[in-house]
Write a structure and sequence with these properties.
Length: about 450
């Protein structure tokens, strides 16, 4: 059986590997000149490595752990020196007030009633999908600062959107899919525990290299997918590739930019119009030393105000310089994006000074990569359904359309939005294809 996979991110590469193991002849068509999708490592002249996209792996992410081992790579723990800091109502403190834990616990309790494979079946699904996280927080959090902080941490930190842009149901789905807030927000023991030596782009390159020679064709954006009773044809600028099935392993927002003949069913096409990508800016400030450690701080900060919601020390073992990575989400990221590079730099550094001290004002380098401006990603960390969309469009996420099957992290039921979810989704789509009656 011949199968075309669209996209050589982790999902497409995992799908291709599983299809090859199942005996299929596979061609992966990748738009960019590189594999990996939402991962990229930039090396500065002195060797300092910066993970511009995904970087962390959670200890419970079994498929990622297996791939790391299979491809001869190793992980290292995220830097953990000193105490975290929280900027709350204009002042720094070591932990957020108890009201934050209580509010987040309420979210976890509600998430327990959501099946991540079918969130629309939750008893209160319609009510939760009409309500935004921001609306829920405004009536549930005990005070406005708690509402703002939890909104920034959960809607921003997990989905890179504003609390008013996302439904409570989408948030509950995401919390459940990633094992709850403790797992998703945690450093040691949670989703931010480990990093990959060499960066995740290296793993993607090794996954691609392990496929039969010639399987991955880069610089080949798929513009159209045509199917009939006999097969399916993927059209690129250079040629047309016939197969018995296609796995589209890109986010729904990008899948909707491919032309389909016959046209996609109404509900599936409407899904692609209702799952925008998040809006995150990830910025790396490089310093001669990790100066924040001198005062006993870890560089891990969260903030209820300002353009940056989170920072983390992101130095790599053996690197001569220290890296502090900052994240801005939703509206704050859009506001930064609109500024000139000089004004953006000034705003970011001023915010870093508030969070980690005056020495933050003068980094050697400040490196940013805007995934929203990247033609083949258009935002991050992932796509999320808009309020009110789960009931009618959620069931279309994984439903094949004839010979076209859907992968990509957005279609995962475990660790949706993460590398692990991407791999699981690719392997699920491959299993579907191999089980097709024609297989
Ligand atoms: C800044 C940032 C930080 C993140 N942090 C983490 C983290 O720490 N841990 C974690 O687990 N996850 C993290 N993520 C999320 C993670 O990167 C994604 O979940 C994962 O990479 C998605 O993989 P994918 O294969 O589903 O999609 P993608 O990686 O987007 O792959 C899709 C591929 O398809 C290609 N493509 C698109 N359209 C076409 C077309 N028409 N024809 C051919 N090819 C096409 C793209 O070029 C791309 O290579 C982060 C993401 C970003 C951007």
């Amino acid at each position: 059986m011949r199968v075309v996979v669209v996209g050589a991110g982790f999902s497409g590469l995992a799908a291709a590997a599983a299809l090859c193991r199942g005996g299929a002849r596979v061609l992966v068509l990748e738009a960019r000149e590189r594999v990996g999708g939402r991962v990229a490592t930039r090396r500065l002249a002195d060797g300092t490595a910066l993970d511009l996209g995904a970087q962390w792996i959670d200890p419970t992410q079994d498929r990622m752990a297996a791939l790391v081992a299979e491809h001869g790579l190793t992980t290292f723990p995220s830097a953990a020196h000193g105490r975290p800091a929280v900027r709350w109502d204009g002042r720094l403190r070591e932990t957020p007030p108890e009201s934050v834990r209580q509010t987040v616990n309420l979210l976890d309790d509600l998430a327990a009633g959501v099946d991540p494979a079918a969130p629309w079946r939750a008893a209160r699904a319609d009510e939760w999908d009409r309500l935004t996280l921001g609306g829920w927080l405004s009536t549930t959090a005990p005070d406005p600062v708690t509402a703002r902080y939890v909104g920034r941490l959960i809607a921003g930190g997990l989905l890179a959107v504003d609390p008013d842009e996302v439904s409570l149901l989408q948030v509950l789905f995401y919390l459940r899919s990633g094992g709850g807030s403790g797992s998703l927000l945690g450093m040691a023991g949670g989703a931010q525990q480990d990093r990959l030596v060499g960066g995740p782009a290296l793993l993607a390159e090794r996954m691609a290299a392990a496929l039969p020679s010639g399987t991955v064709r880069s610089g080949a954006p798929v513009r159209a997918v045509h199917q009939d009773g006999h097969g399916v044809v993927a059209h690129t600028d250079e040629g047309a590739y016939r197969a018995e099935a296609v796995v589209v392993a890109v986010a729904p927002a990008l899948a909707g930019r491919i032309a389909y003949a016959p046209a996609l069913p109404a509900l599936r096409d409407a899904l692609t119009q209702r799952m925008p990508m998040g809006s995150a800016l990830k910025l790396h400030a490089v310093y001669p030393t990790p100066f924040w450690r001198a005062d006993g701080w870890s560089g891990v900060t969260t903030s209820a105000d300002g353009p940056l919601t989170e920072t983390v020390e992101n130095s790599t073992p053996g690197s001569t310089r220290a890296v502090l990575t900052a994240f801005s989400y939703g509206r704050q990221a859009r506001d930064l994006r609109r500024l000139s590079p000089g004004r953006r730099r000034a705003e970011v550094l001023a915010a870093l000074v508030e969070l980690v001290g005056p020495a933050a004002a003068g980094p050697d380098d400040l490196v940013e990569h805007d995934w929203s401006a990247d033609e083949w990603t258009r935002g991050c960390f992932c796509g999320a359904l808009t309020p009110g969309s789960w009931r009618d469009h959620g069931p279309e996420l994984r439903r094949p359309v004839g010979r076209v099957h859907w992968a990509g992290t957005e279609t995962a039921t475990r660790w949706a939005g993460y590398l692990e979810g991407a791999v699981l989704a690719g392997e699920r789509a491959a299993a579907e294809v191999l089980a097709r009656p024609t297989a």
